[in-house]
Design a protein that fits this description.
Elements lengths: L13 H16 L14 E2 L12 H10 L17 H14 L3 E5 L2 H13 L4 E5 L4 H9 L7 E4 L4 H10 L5 E6 L11 H10 L3 E5 L14 H4 L8 E5 L9 E5 L1 H10 L1 H4 L6 H13 L4 H20 L11 E7 L1 H13 L2 E2 L2 E2 L9 E6 L6 H17 L1
Parallel strand pairs: 1-10, 3-4, 3-5, 5-6, 6-7
Antiparallel strand pairs: 2-8, 7-8, 9-12, 11-12
Helix pairs in contact: 3-11, 4-5, 12-14
Bound molecules: pyridoxal-5'-phosphate.
Length: 391
């Protein structure tokens, strides 16, 4: 507050502060209060989306630091003087990698998804959205002020319901939007079936590849590639903050869509361009991606081993090679208890509670990386099973 301005209530009192304290107390009472917690020294981090283990690879991190000589910041929005040449270089290389006509870099996957939805909404499109889509997709609908008349939410992976919704919708501009690998359950969408549905209804298919990039597909291109589809005919959102160990996201799709995003996406227009340093780091990571096949195989093998073990011990879990392993325990108190129990045994993981997941499906979401050792994985499995036996 400026010196000399009328003195208002101190920050700890007044009606707004009291309302906030009441809200926080309510969250605490319902075991839903979130806090920021660094990973305790020495603990195995099971919360990181660094699937290839790049962040804990000192040699790779050292190489990035040594070889990148770029500005840390863009200095302005890309449309207003912040257009560093490295952005176009990265976008062009990424389009080739993804086998897509055009790409555009965003400061985050959140901003990318909001932008994609808001921009397509400007074309009077109707959206058909999987119920478990990420908050950034839901918030994109909010940003575009889309009502229920234009957002058709289908039950998770329910293609019959989606088909009925598409058949019943007279609008000509339709968008089907889904994650390829879902962030909370780690399961995969049936992309070939979704693509076929999109084709038969002349709909645009938008695919959030956040958790698939780097892990599946040739050279880590993602699930679109893994599913045998071409990224040329869809829009994909490819985040760099997960398996790529960086920050930001690249939207790939038709050239007209790139141009429309540049002109109409508010989270692109009204924000500072990404860090050129990070964009260069993404270029270096892209060049190295094809060489990390062993890491991709390793993290998927670890995932399958853990899933098989949990399934054998009676936990309800699919057998797959997805490194997002949800240990669903029901109540928020149980999820908190399991995460505490594991922490005492050297494993750092966080409980996931509403509103991130539906009520009654609280979980500890384990996220595996290629840096985890087999011995650690086996110890983790034994600890979860022992916790389950105590209940
Ligand atoms: C499926 C999905 N999409 C988008 C995002 C947002 O990406 P970012 O962290 O780059 O903002 C996330 C991040 O949690 C995600 O899980």
């Amino acid at each position: 507050m400026c010196a000399g301005s009328p003195s208002g209530p101190p920050s700890g009192s007044g009606p707004i502060a009291r309302a906030a304290q009441k809200r926080l107390a309510d969250l605490r009472a319902r075991c839903l209060l979130r806090t920021l917690t660094p990973v305790p020294a020495g603990a195995v981090n099971l919360c990181s989306n660094d699937y290839l283990g790049l962040l804990s690879d000192a040699a790779w991190q050292g190489e990035l630091r040594r070889t990148i000589d770029r500005d840390a910041g863009a200095g302005a929005s890309r449309l207003l003087g912040g257009e560093d040449p490295v952005f176009a270089e990265l976008e062009s290389a990424f389009s080739q990698f993804k086998d897509a006509p055009a790409s555009l870099l965003f400061p985050s996957g959140y901003a990318a998804n909001e932008s994609v939805v808001q921009t397509l909404a400007g074309l009077e499109a109707h959206f058909f959205s999987d119920q478990l889509n990420h908050a950034s997709i839901i918030d994109g609908c909010r940003l575009a002020r889309l009502g229920r008349d234009r957002v058709h939410v289908f039950a998770h992976a329910d293609l019959d319901q989606l088909r009925s919704q598409l058949n019943a919708c007279p609008a000509s501009n339709k968008v089907i939007i889904t994650e390829s690998v879902f962030s909370m359950d780690g399961d995969a969408a049936d992309l070939p079936a979704l693509y076929e549905l999109a084709q038969s209804h002349q709909a645009l298919l938008v695919i959030d590849e956040a958790h698939a990039m780097g892990v599946w597909g040739r050279a880590g291109r993602g699930w679109i590639d893994h599913a045998g589809l071409s990224a040329a005919g869809v829009v994909s959102v490819n985040t760099l903050g997960k398996a790529w160990g960086l920050q930001g996201a690249i939207v790939s799709g038709p050239e007209w869509f790139r141009q429309l995003l540049i002109n109409e996406a508010r989270p692109f227009i009204y924000t500072t361009g990404c860090s050129p340093w990070l964009a260069d780091a993404a270029l270096q990571t892209l060049k190295r991606m094809p060489h990390w096949e062993t890491r991709r195989c390793r993290v998927r093998e670890l995932a399958e081993r853990l899933r098989r073990g949990l399934c054998g011990a009676g936990f309800a879990i699919d057998i797959s090679d997805s490194p997002i392993v949800p240990v669903i325990v029901g109540a928020a108190t149980a999820a908190l208890d399991l995460s505490r129990y594991l922490l005492e045994r050297g494993f750092f993981c966080r409980p996931v509670r509403p509103p991130t997941v539906p009520e009654g499906t609280c979980r500890v979401r384990l996220s595996l990386t290629a840096a985890i050792r087999a011995e650690q994985l086996d110890r983790l499995l034994r600890a979860i099973v022992a916790w389950g036996d105590r209940r």
